[in-house]
């Protein structure tokens, strides 16, 4: 009788551990790894006014669409780099058509701050990128990876690491168990199973 009970308990617990493993695997698969050899695009808006942010998004869409056409069939970062450098005047023309402010378009090593996207941190550092600065460049920025094309991911949706909203932090802590809670749960289950097997 005890053996049957143990088998039934095992069948009950198996889906729980399986679902947890699948969820963890899916979470890891969503993580977008940026290759070491990559070219980014960073756009700094003039300010955070609705007009300036809308202007930034318009420039983002047109520049991204144009550069994607140039590099989507390329497999070498050297080719991508040469193509972008050769066509910088066209990028400047796109920006000029969409803003009345002064602006600059640079290509080279650009400083990026720490960013959080989903639950993953993209570290600060200097990365090869096109930097478009509109006006004073004091508004929220937007960035993505142009080559290899990863601009379908808006990394800038995450906030800077040290600039989380307090309510957001509380919500995350309440909705996601931390590592200590996970360890306590695992320990409880392990102790319960040991007692169960001792009883059997």
Q: What do these coordinates show?
A:
This protein is α+β, with helices and mostly antiparallel strands. Helix content is 51%, strand content 20%. The protein has six helices and six strands; from the N terminus they run H-E-H-H-H-E-E-E-E-E-H-H. The strands form two sheets. Strands 2-5-1-6 form a four-stranded mixed sheet. A hairpin with a 2-residue loop joins strand 3 and strand 4. About 10% of the residues have low confidence. This is Stage II sporulation protein R. It comes from Alkalibacillus salilacus.
Distance between the termini: 9 Å
Order of helices and strands: HEHHHEEEEEHH
What's the total count of β strands? 6
Strand order of the largest sheet: 2-5-1-6
Features:
alpha+beta; 4-stranded mixed sheet; 51% helix
Give a short overview:
The chain has 200 residues and is α+β, with helices and mostly antiparallel strands.
Task: Write the SSE topology.
Layout: H1 2-29, E1 39-44, H2 50-71, H3 77-86, H4 88-98, E2 103-112, E3 115-117, E4 120-122, E5 125-134, E6 141-147, H5 166-175, H6 179-199
Parallel strand pairs: 1-5
Antiparallel strand pairs: 1-6, 2-5, 3-4
Helix pairs in contact: 2-4
């Amino acid at each position: 009788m005890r053996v049957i009970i143990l088998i039934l308990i095992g069948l009950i617990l198996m889906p729980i551990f399986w679902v947890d493993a699948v969820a963890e695997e899916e979470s890891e698969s969503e993580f977008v790894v940026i290759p070491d050899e990559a070219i980014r695009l960073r756009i700094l808006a003039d300010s955070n006014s609705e007009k300036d942010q809308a202007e930034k998004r318009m420039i983002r869409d047109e520049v991204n669409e144009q550069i994607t056409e140039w590099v989507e069939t390329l497999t070498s970062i050297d080719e991508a780099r040469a193509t972008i450098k050769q066509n910088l005047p066209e990028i400047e023309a796109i920006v000029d058509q969409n803003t009345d402010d002064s602006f600059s378009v640079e290509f080279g090593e650009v400083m990026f701050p720490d960013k959080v996207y989903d639950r993953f941190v993209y570290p600060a550092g200097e990365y090869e990128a096109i930097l478009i600065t509109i006006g004073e460049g004091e508004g929220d920025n937007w960035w993505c990876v142009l080559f290899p094309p990863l601009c379908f991911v808006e990394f800038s949706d995450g906030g800077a690491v040290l600039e989380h909203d307090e309510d957001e932090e509380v919500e995350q802590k309440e909705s996601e168990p931390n590592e200590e809670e996970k360890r306590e749960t695992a320990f409880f289950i392990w102790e319960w199973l040991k007692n169960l097997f001792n009883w059997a």
